[in-house]
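It would be a great kindness if you could assist me with a short task in structural biology. The matter concerns a single protein, recorded as an amino acid sequence and a row of backbone structure tokens. Kindly check, if you would, that the fold set down in the tokens agrees with what the sequence suggests. Thank you for your consideration; the sequence and its tokens are set out here:
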Amino acid sequence: MVTKTLAGAALLLVLSACGASGPLDGLGDASTEWLREGAAATTTTDVRVVVELGNQGLVGTADLLWANDDLGATGVSDPLRVIRGVWDRQVGSRFVQASRSEIAIALPTIRFPSLVTEDVRWVTSQLVYDSVTGQLDANTAAAFGLWSVEPYTAADGQLGVLRVGEAPGDVGTARSDTVPIVVPDGVNLGWTEGGLRYEMFCRASIPDAVCEAIIDSFVPLATLLAS
């Protein structure tokens, strides 16, 4: 159940300030790098519903099409090398396409939902940088898009957005209460855990109970890596 506390209200102010440009800002733009040859495949896949919630089905994210999983060098496990390597691919946008394995190495404690609504078929993933320093941005270090269609082909095909940044130093590592904020196209749910701050946007077409179930399904991203 979503609850509000004084600490949660402070978090809400942080989320509002960081998301002033809107929950989809930066994630709906097809960067030059994304348009590399062969990246925008037209393949789709049937994903098995693993949880029924009312008249909604939830599917496992490990089985979705992760659009950037062909990126990155194999055998690199040092976070600083990965962060620098992704930055070296940057062309224009500070949102740089990155594979889930690169993000899991760059942010070792990062978590991601293991379940999403059955309409989701694609996941896009990016590391986000400070354009001046070339280091990960503190407010939003990683971003993910959940798509019902081939990414960047239709704005309304993006059903959800997850932004992950550095948590304030005084909030601890345990998961905080979830704080909602209504936005024009849906709702943002924010919380902190493991030294990171999460902001999950669900489009208005996703029922609240389904959005909360998605948030409750978060697991370490490293456990969802392609086999």
User: Anything to note?
Assistant: The radius of gyration is 16 Å. The chain has four helices and 13 strands. Residues 6-36+45-224 form one domain. Helices lie at 6-18, 79-87, 100-106, 208-216.
